[in-house]
Write a structure and sequence with these properties.
Blueprint (H helix, E strand, L loop, with lengths): L1 E5 L4 H4 L11 E6 L1 H4 L9 E4 L6 H8 L8 E4 L5 H11 L6 H5 L4 H7 L10 E2 L14 E5 L9 E3 L2 H9 L7 E5 L4 E10 L2 E11 L2 H4 L5 E6 L3 H14 L3 E10 L5 E7 L7 H9 L3 H9 L14 E7 L9 E5 L2 H4 L4 E6 L19 E7 L2 H14 L1 E5 L2 H4 L1
Parallel strand pairs: 1-2, 1-4, 2-3
Antiparallel strand pairs: 5-8, 6-7, 6-8, 9-10, 9-12, 10-11, 11-14, 12-13, 14-17, 15-18, 16-17
Helix pairs in contact: 3-4
């Protein structure tokens, strides 16, 4: 099979070699220089590197044609889902319709699709009427219609304040207003094959993703997937018409136990979702997604650990770019029985200025597990309070 891979997610996250036999299939990777540089040197494949600032779709289409004979296009990034539709159209390859893909990229489209389904979701407005208030008054979230990692998301104490901020945006058509929902946020990660949910694990966040953008550590830990959780995820998949691949579904659980849809992505989750999911269920999500999308046989699952797994990331994008990182991890954390691994940023290495959950880029990243999810949560919460990542002024600057 001739496969074109639009390479956007770090190779070490996806591990394409676990899902594609590169000796059996003819594989071409295409992408921007920083991403192509992380392909293993000994990986048997063709490589096409775009210009650093080149538009992805235009660049891929300029370097490929139907004469190349590609049979499949693989794009596993949040930011390659609709882009791959244009590439498939250029190459004459069948795939999902554009409107179906937009339902899992555009946060307004996905909530519109849930209307009448019985699934509760936050009230929202994408195009507010001039000089009229929003249909609610309390805390309100202003967020991009298409985005990830809570970039450019802000929470306002009143609907009026959020509406005022919305009207000051230079690009308001790219944003939406959404009522704030009180409750824990959970995420469900799994696989869809032929429109059917075939694998699922549920985790509960420690702190909230929007807080991470402002410098608060974020983590999550697995807990038992209840029949209500599974039924909720199955209904989301059915209503939104998700046919194949990974899902990363986020939803609220209110104080009275009601589940409220937040958003869903038709791709694998970030941070340590891949590794923790494999440990807990035996399923390596990217390999199984690749098999489903390429019509290959799914690989066998490994033996689960029998433990609940979690992670905690400490952000660095908000720290002073010219400061000296100062990281403090108490000894009790390092030696705690819950700890599986602690990643600490290498000395002298600066944190990226953008939001990232990659364990090799943030100041501190903790992987942990326990047979009891309650014990695991307590440990992660205490780590969030006692581990710190800051910066101090350089001596030459102080002088």
């Amino acid at each position: 099979m001739k496969i074109l891979v639009i390479h956007q997610v770090p190779y070490r996250k996806i591990a394409y070699h676990r899902g594609i036999d590169h000796e059996r299939h003819e594989v071409t990777y295409i992408g921007h220089p920083h991403r192509m540089a992380d392909l293993p040197e000994d990986l048997p494949c063709r490589r096409i590197t775009l210009e650093a600032d080149e538009d992805l779709v235009a660049g891929v289409c300029a370097r490929t044609s139907r004469a190349d004979g590609f049979e499949k296009v693989l794009a596993l990034s949040e930011f390659g889902i609709t882009e791959a539709w244009h590439v498939r159209r250029h190459l004459g390859i069948e795939g999902a319709a554009l409107d179906a893909l937009e339902r899992v990229r555009d946060k307004v489209r996905m909530k519109e699709a849930l209307a009448g389904s019985g699934l509760r979701h936050p009230r929202f407005v994408a195009d507010p009427t001039p000089c009229r208030p929003l249909p609610w008054e309390g805390r309100t979230v202003l967020k991009p219609r298409q985005g990830a990692s809570s970039e450019d998301v802000s929470v306002h104490e009143t609907a009026r304040a959020a509406l005022s901020a919305f009207r000051k945006l230079p690009n308001p058509e790219e944003f939406q207003l959404e009522e704030h929902i009180d409750g824990d946020i959970l995420h469900a990660d799994g696989l869809v094959d032929g429109g059917r949910l075939v694998n699922l694990a549920v985790s509960r966040y420690v702190n909230k993703p929007v807080q991470y953008a402002s410098g608060v550590p974020l983590g999550s830990h697995q807990e038992s997937c209840t029949p209500a959780h599974r039924a909720f995820a199955e209904q989301v998949v059915a209503v939104l018409g998700i046919e194949e691949g990974c899902i990363h579904l986020e939803f609220f659980e209110t104080a009275d136990g009601e589940l409220v849809f937040l958003e869903v992505a038709n791709r694998v989750g970030g941070a340590a979702v891949i590794s923790t999911h494999e440990q807990h269920t035996g399923v390596h999500l990217p390999s199984h997604e690749i098999a489903i999308r390429l019509d290959l046989e799914r690989p066998p699952a490994d033996r689960p650990t029998g433990r609940h797994h979690g992670w905690l990331a400490f952000p660095g994008h908000h720290l002073a770019a010219d400061g000296v990182p100062e990281i403090h991890v108490p000894e009790w954390v390092r030696t705690h029985p819950c700890v599986d691994r602690i990643h600490i940023l290498a000395p002298g290495r600066q944190c990226p200025r953008h939001i990232t959950y990659q364990e090799w880029e943030v100041p501190v990243f903790i992987e942990a597990s326990h047979t009891d999810p309650g014990q695991l949560r307590s440990f992660l919460e205490e780590c969030a309070r006692t581990v710190s990542a800051t910066t101090r002024q350089r001596e030459d600057q102080a002088a």
